[in-house]
Amino acid sequence: MPNTWIVVADSSHARFFTNEQASGPIVEHYALTNPTGRAHRGDLISDRQGRNRNGDMGHEAQAQREGISRFANDVCKTLEQARSEGELGKLYVVAPPQFLGELRKHQAAPLQQHVAQELAKNLAAQNAEVIRQALPTRL
């Protein structure tokens, strides 16, 4: 039977929760991490000689953006797998605005149809009770 799923993510962590009762608690099942999401730009590319004449660090920023994009894709693949296996009913997505936009880019149309609500908040480091309070009373 499909459950209500809640994904709470930022550029470095994604936590997957379910809710079996419309007004009940949420239960965390697993998490994904992205090591490049919190890395300093200089840590991503070590063979660069530093800033170019214009003073920018373009390659490092690009590497970080690509890592974040890959992570958003991984999060959406996890959700798509649950959808294709019939485990996903409604979906609530909680993420900071920039990462929320990145997640939208990687959602296939069938997955988008399950999204009940998006919350543009960074709650990835919060406990389940705080996350649940940010969601509608009835999921």
Give the CA-CA distance, first to last residue: 16 Å
- For the biggest β-sheet, the strand order reads 3-2-1-4-5
Number of helices: 5
Proportion of beta-strand residues? 25-35%
Helix and strand composition category: alpha/beta
Report low-confidence residues grouped into runs of 5 or more.
Answer: 40-47
Oligomer state of the chains in this structure: single chain
Please tell me how large the radius of gyration is: 17 Å
Molecular shape = globular
What is the average per-residue confidence, as pLDDT, rounded to a whole number? Answer: 88
Largest sheet: 5 strands, mixed
CATH class: Alpha Beta
The total domain count is: 1
CATH architecture designation: 2-Layer Sandwich
Fold and architecture overview:
The protein has 139 residues and is α/β, with parallel strands linked by helices. The protein has one domain: Nucleotidyltransferase, domain 5. 37% of the residues lie in helices and 25% in strands. It contains five helices and five strands, in the order βββααβααβα. The protein has helices spanning 41-44, 58-84, 97-106, 109-112, 128-134; strands at residues 3-9, 13-19, 27-33, 88-95, 115-120. Strand 2 and strand 3 (27-33) form a beta hairpin. It is globular and about 45 Å long. Residues 40-47 have low confidence and may be disordered.
